[in-house]
Write the structure tokens for this entry.
Amino acid sequence: MKQIDDATRMLARLPGLGPRSARRIVQHLLTRRDNLLLPLAEELRRLADSLAVCSVCGNWDERSPCSLCVDAKRDRSLLCVVEQIADLWALERSACYRGQYHVLGGVLSALNGIGPDDLRLAKLEQRVQSAEIQEVILATNLTLEGQTTAHYIAARLTRMGVKASRLARGVPIGGELDYMDEGTLSTAIEARQKII
Amino acid sequence: MKQIDDATRMLARLPGLGPRSARRIVQHLLTRRDNLLLPLAEELRRLADSLAVCSVCGNWDERSPCSLCVDAKRDRSLLCVVEQIADLWALERSACYRGQYHVLGGVLSALNGIGPDDLRLAKLEQRVQSAEIQEVILATNLTLEGQTTAHYIAARLTRMGVKASRLARGVPIGGELDYMDEGTLSTAIEARQKII
């Protein structure tokens, strides 16, 4: 049946799914037409309709500015710069950060032809200049491109007289030394901390 | 955002997905609102709308009787009985069978309270009686319940004077003896075949 094949092919393109798992999902959906297939179609449609990108930080929400940007309880002197919205979500799940965010929408990459103008950098400098921000945490990924981007932004912010910081590096919680790469281990040794 | 959480929770209930993979899929969909999220919602909606259960064999299709049942090129003297529509699809993918199908919609199970009246058995006997069917292949799963069901149906068909057969058992193609259970190995030894 063409509809089934089309839906399977489309689902198989989603991250983490392949032809086999997509087929299993379609079969599951088909046996639950009224209480899963239709509601899911409806839910995705609603998601698409309600989606807005925050004009301030770049987060997704139902409105712009987003609920994080208008939350009066969040610290307005701290700004955390992340690559993607997914990173913002990860930090929010950890519930350890109560400042503002700024989503770059990518990283500098000569290989992919992404330069400073392709990121939300102008908006970042505008926010930093106009507002009461005292510190910018550059929480880009610890990849080569993520760190290049962080250094580039840090240099610009320092020229503007804004304090720039980065996340601590080391062995992750639950990490086993045997599975860590040499870079992580040497960083962890160099930045070792006093116990008491 | 409530919409995002709702969609994530719904996707996480699909087979093979969990909260983490569902979130990844939602993030993927959100970054591709117009060329993936909306089309997928539309596709699932279309799938639900076009879905019909074949009144003859129990397959899913756009119409009833389904395209397999009306296909004049398929052998009408052979009928293959399967538990689920997914099994029918698996056989169709192998492209080794060109007869008709009959989907039971389950297996006999005292544990789950499923008796003969809960399966599409009356329809099966009606088909076998009225049509030119000469052999019924009982292709239920090789589980305890699948085989109980096959024996039950075989007994009824034999009483009606219809030939009932089952799939061959043995080591699957690509199978390694080291990973086979004892039941499979003893079956394969007992049913060993002459090479030339």
About this structure: Chain B is about 45% helix and 10% strand.
